[in-house]
Structure to design on (854 residues):
């Protein structure tokens, strides 16, 4: 079959497609021609597949969680028992999440193939991970066409115009998230989008959802900030508001992820399982993950020290388990292409990322989800951090020259 | 008194087929080869013609840019053929051996009575000079420069490497004489790196360094970097310990015998062992009836830095080992032996294969498959794990790829040779030929800055 696809063959221009399939099924028979005669067993396909493996706990939990909140909406009961009717919830969730995954992969891989055919190379592996990350950062109620549009934007503007896998400046999945956040803010924030079906139900019959809140933990917190802190309509002291918040979202529920939010981000536990896979295999940088958490925690403590309103008074550890903080730290900040490349740079990069994420989240209630903005900002800053680390190395060498 | 250098970053690639400690003698091949291609950047100027008779030590060609650097015949006999490439570049000089190994006599005195200039002239005229390489650029040393030191490693840590304390057990006196001679040349700046407790730690007139740790601990580049790194405008020379013994022999007897002892190993060798051979010997003479199978790769040198040869090729000038490993030119189904397989047969520096859990004594049969396709750099931090220099390997490689001369100078190109990056190239997930990129960068530096 191969002769049809090689140069001069009948289907020459389809070669990238053929090669992608062939190299997926078989490690090619390429042998070393220059330099080292033997090469490490690892390749980019295996590396990327490991990241996807690490995302599976988040995906499975996200599917169940989505199913749960869909059911909560249809029964208009926010306190629906979490571990009831598990099979039904999982299937419902599957029906909501899988189309998003399929659209993301379909659109992304389609564009990648197109660029591959133009440039005459087979599919590069980068999108295998991005295609899974994008759905996990989406709210459950996101329209599918938006997912497709955001994916197309991210792949073309975020990556392919820079030259493809390994060349991009900012994280692809976060580019997609940011695109939707700024282009369609009403579909990406507020308190109607996090539970599948809520928007439709409200539109059809607003009274049917009276007293039902579709807000996320971050949304609730932000609302404390916008005006006076109120609980059930009464103005209260900051500490009372925090107490009310932490009984609504207990630390355990937040850590386990049994709260509304983007599809894959809610469960810190599932994220940590993924982190375990990434760190054990060495694919994800432990430096970045730890320093990101440290940065967020220290910012949280600083804000506690200032205090004065419920958001500032929220215990620092809470920040690490609500919203997309853990997901961002483990799967987004560690993207090797857009993170700092030097060992010390990674520590600075991670720390500032976590620090800024909580700063944005708390001090600017218009952007409760500060994590993705902080990581995108640090993606841009990473080359500058690296520049100083590299310059340090250069200066050590110059100093040596002077002293000899 | 000795200084200890510990190398923690690196990787021992544990291959099947280590040579057993026995030495076999191989008679000189009918045809022996001297190839200008073994010396990077050299333009040869021939001084002999086809059909002329030569002795061991007779000049075959010299460096066109520096006539003092001479390259001599490793055997006695007749010039059989001068092999040229399509555009008349000289590729090989084949010498038909009369197997008598009669050699040219040089006037020698005791080392102590020989002046620095006399040592230099003797090394140049006897043709042993090209064994001395210089940093920067990793080429034959320029005798007109004053080196900051001559660096010698008494051990090789690369995969299946020869054990020099075994090879030179009987030649310790010659090694000492050779070191004395070099000591005259570099006036006391001879750095000898050895493993703890090796016989070489007893050598005199040298500065001893104790090196422990994993490969590339034995690489001269690693050692120079940790002993006295090369700055811009400085030169460090290095020479293989076996060639030091040859210098000793030259001072003892006044002639060279053109012989060396090499390790023959690799998973496709039936009886891996040591062999006494003549420089420039034919591979098939050395490996006669000792290779398993047909689909194999012959490597003159080690698996990381050696040259690919055919069975009818000749051993390279600088090489002290021959490795034969299987070719990997077949498809591997992704779930069994391919990229998504369990991978109990894959040796990896990453922890993506279960083999990192296996005991350190487990050895592997690796083939020449690249185990993946080339991509742009994606993974960061993996090169640093096997690169024990205070140099950023990925940044330097990128500077070389983009031909950024200032960048390369700043990032330490003067200290490195392509072989220092061999392990980086091995572990690279994106299968980039890093040694080639570094050589390209060095060539650029040679033409622009030297």
């Amino acid at each position: 079959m191969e002769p049809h696809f090689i140069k001069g063959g009948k289907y020459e221009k389809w070669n990238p497609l053929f090669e992608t399939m062939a190299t997926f099924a078989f490690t090619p028979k390429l042998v070393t021609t220059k330099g080292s005669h033997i090469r490490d067993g690892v390749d980019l396909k295996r590396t990327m597949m490991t990241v996807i493996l690490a995302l599976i706990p988040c995906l499975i939990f996200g599917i169940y969680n989505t199913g749960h909140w869909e059911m909560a909406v249809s029964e208009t009961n926010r306190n629906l028992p979490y571990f009831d009717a598990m099979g039904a919830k999982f299937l419902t969730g599957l029906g909501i999440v899988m189309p998003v995954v399929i659209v993301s992969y379909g659109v992304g891989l389609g564009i990648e193939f197109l660029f591959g055919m133009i440039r005459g190379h087979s599919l590069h592996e980068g999108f295998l991970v991005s295609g899974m990350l994008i759905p996990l950062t989406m709210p459950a109620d996101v329209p599918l066409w938006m997912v497709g549009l955001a994916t197309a934007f991210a792949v073309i503007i975020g990556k392919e115009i820079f030259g493809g896998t390994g060349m991009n400046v900012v994280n692809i999945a976060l580019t997609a998230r940011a695109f939707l956040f700024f282009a369609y803010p009403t579909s990406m924030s507020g308190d109607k989008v996090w539970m599948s079906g809520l928007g439709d139900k409200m539109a059809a019959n607003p009274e049917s959802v009276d007293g039902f809140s579709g807000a996320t933990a971050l949304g609730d917190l932000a609302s404390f900030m916008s005006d006076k802190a109120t609980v059930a309509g009464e103005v209260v002291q900051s500490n009372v508001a925090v107490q009310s918040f932490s009984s609504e979202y207990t630390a355990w529920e937040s850590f386990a992820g049994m709260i509304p939010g983007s599809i894959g981000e809610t469960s810190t536990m599932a994220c940590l399982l993924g982190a375990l896979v990434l760190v054990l295999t060495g694919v994800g940088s432990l430096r970045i993950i730890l320093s990101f958490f440290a940065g967020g925690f220290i910012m949280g403590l600083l804000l506690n020290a200032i205090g004065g309103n419920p958001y500032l008074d929220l215990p620092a550890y809470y920040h690490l388990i609500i919203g997309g903080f853990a997901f961002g730290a483990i799967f987004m900040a560690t993207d090797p292409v857009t993170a700092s490349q030097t060992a010390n740079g990674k520590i600075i990069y991670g720390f500032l990322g976590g620090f800024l994420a909580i700063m944005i989240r708390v001090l600017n209630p218009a952007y409760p989800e500060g994590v993705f903005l902080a990581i995108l900002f640090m993606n841009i800053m990473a080359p500058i951090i690296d520049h100083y680390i590299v310059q340090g190395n250069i200066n050590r060498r110059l100093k040596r020259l002077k002293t000899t | 008194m000795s200084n200890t250098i510990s190398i923690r970053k690196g990787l021992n690639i544990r291959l099947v087929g280590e040579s057993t400690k026995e030495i076999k003698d191989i008679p000189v091949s009918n045809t022996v080869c001297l190839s200008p291609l073994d010396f990077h950047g050299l333009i040869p100027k021939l001084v002999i013609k086809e059909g002329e008779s030569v002795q061991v030590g007779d000049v075959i060609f010299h460096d066109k840019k520096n006539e003092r650097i001479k390259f001599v015949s490793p055997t006695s006999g007749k010039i059989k053929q001068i092999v040229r490439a399509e555009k008349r570049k000289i590729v090989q000089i084949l010498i038909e051996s009369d197997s008598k190994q009669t050699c040219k006599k040089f006037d020698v005195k005791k080392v102590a009575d020989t002046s620095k200039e006399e040592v230099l002239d003797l090394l140049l005229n006897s043709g042993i000079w090209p064994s001395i390489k210089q940093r920067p650029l990793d080429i034959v040393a320029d005798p007109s420069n004053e080196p900051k030191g001559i660096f010698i490693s008494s051990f090789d840590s690369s995969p299946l490497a020869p054990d020099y304390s075994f090879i030179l057990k009987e030649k310790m006196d010659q090694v000492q004489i050779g070191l004395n001679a070099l000591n005259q040349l570099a006036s006391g700046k001879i750095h000898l790196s050895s493993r703890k407790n090796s016989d070489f730690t007893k050598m005199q007139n040298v500065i001893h360094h104790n090196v422990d740790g994993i490969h590339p601990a034995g690489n001269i580049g690693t050692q120079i970097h940790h002993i006295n790194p090369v700055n811009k405008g400085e030169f460090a020379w290095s020479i293989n310990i076996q060639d030091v013994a040859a210098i000793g022999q030259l001072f003892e007897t006044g002639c060279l015998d053109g012989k060396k002892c090499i390790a023959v190993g690799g998973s496709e060798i039936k009886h891996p062992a040591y062999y006494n051979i003549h420089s420039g010997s034919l591979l098939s003479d050395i490996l006669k009836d000792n290779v398993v199978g047909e689909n194999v790769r012959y490597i003159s040198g080690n698996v990381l830095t050696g040259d690919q040869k055919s069975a009818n090729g000749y051993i390279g000038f600088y090489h002290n080992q021959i490795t034969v490993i299987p070719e990997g030119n077949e498809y591997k189904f992704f779930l069994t032996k391919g990229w998504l397989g369990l991978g109990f047969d894959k040796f990896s520096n990453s922890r993506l294969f279960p083999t990192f859990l296996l005991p350190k004594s487990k050895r592997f049969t690796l083939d020449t498959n690249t185990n993946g396709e080339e991509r742009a750099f994606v993974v960061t931090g993996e090169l640093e794990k096997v690169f024990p220099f205070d140099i950023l390997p990925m940044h330097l490689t990128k500077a070389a790829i983009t031909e950024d001369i200032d960048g390369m100078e700043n990032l330490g190109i003067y200290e490195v040779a392509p072989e220092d990056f061999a392990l980086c190239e091995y572990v690279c997930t994106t299968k980039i030929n890093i040694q080639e990129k570094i050589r390209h960068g060095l060539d650029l530096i040679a033409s622009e800055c030297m």
In short: Chain A has a mean pLDDT of 85.
